[in-house]
Specification:
307 residues; alpha/beta; globular
Length: 307
């Protein structure tokens, strides 16, 4: 790492599979002389940020880039309870086995996972304890994942109270605070990416297929021109996204980052993790667009004065 590198507090927002764009942003920063000293994240931002803080991001990136739709289905562990559709134990178990686990206090850089207290509605900053416990708590999306018990608290997704937790980095002594907002303005799509063909049927697929079907976007209507039909979770996700946008705007009035990298909210669906490489490339491209342009706008350094 160059001795004159720019130090960064990195804030990673929530947004489901769009959060894989965080990987591309982190790669671009490291390749261009930035030193990440602190990470704060909500939900998917807590996941990617925590894995990077543990120095295992490339292991995760290779794994998630190889995922196909059938693999995503197999990571789902439905629950018969009423407080969520998915337990989340299976995916966390796979990640723990692949990545390892540690205490947050032992990470080589500062890390904060943001969650929400189910009973009080308070914003909770997780800065100690097992890394993947904090990640699981932060990504407990209502209706989808069951709440996670962390100590004496039942915790839910941090995005409910702070989708882009810049406030967790305000005391950092770094050169820049860079925030990656996964709920940026939608953009016209130049192409439609076909969904991968489903895998061969199996008992597991028959059991969880109807569940995942609820996560899928509706299909366009027929000749009547009616809008796409949306299921229960489609409506829930869109509603939460609207809420997240409002909360983010309010939070940023109090604590604004130096730089914001925006990922379009329609870049991919919440659950489309099989589009990992596409999202990683998008994150890299948006980091280059924002930070590359920013570097070009800096005035050249003045030569030293003659003695």
């Amino acid at each position: 790492m160059p001795t004159n590198s720019t130090t960064v507090s990195l804030v990673l927002g929530s947004g489901g599979a769009r959060g894989l764009a965080h990987i591309g942003v982190i790669r671009w920063l490291l390749e261009n002389g930035y030193e990440i000293r602190s990470i704060a994240g909500s939900s998917m931002g807590a996941l990617v940020g925590g894995i990077h803080a543990y120095q295992k991001l490339e292991v995760y990136a290779q794994w998630v880039s190889a995922l196909e739709r059938a693999h995503v289905l197999r990571l789902v562990d439905p629950t018969l309870g009423r407080d969520g559709l998915i337990k989340g134990d299976r995916i966390i178990g796979v990640l723990r086995e692949m990545i390892g686990d540690c205490h947050i206090e032992d990470l080589p850089l500062a890390y904060t996972a943001v969650a929400t207290d189910l009973e009080t509605g308070e914003e909770v900053w997780l800065r100690e304890g097992r890394l993947f416990d904090a990640i699981r708590a932060s990504m407990a999306t209502p209706l989808v994942f069951t709440p996670f018990r962390h100590g004496e608290r039942q915790l839910l997704d941090g995005a409910l109270v702070n989708p882009l937790p810049v406030a967790a980095t305000v005391d950092d002594r770094t050169d820049l605070t860079i925030a990656v907002n996964l709920n940026g303005p939608p953009e016209p799509r130049t192409r439609q990416r076909p969904e991968p063909a489903p895998a061969e049927d199996s008992g597991g697929r028959r059991r969880i297929g109807p569940l995942i079907g609820k996560l899928r976007r509706g299909q366009p209507g027929g000749e009547s021109g009616e809008k796409s039909r949306r299921g229960l979770l489609d409506v829930a996700f869109l509603s939460m996204q609207t809420m997240h946008d409002t909360i983010t705007k309010l939070k940023l009035t109090a604590h604004a980052p130096d730089v914001t990298i925006a990922i379009p909210r329609d870049a991919c669906g919440f659950h489309e993790f099989w589009r990992a490489q596409e999202m990683i490339d998008l994150g890299r491209e948006r980091a280059e667009r924002v930070l590359g342009a920013r570097a070009e706008e800096r005035p050249p350094l003045s030569p030293p004065a003659a003695c």
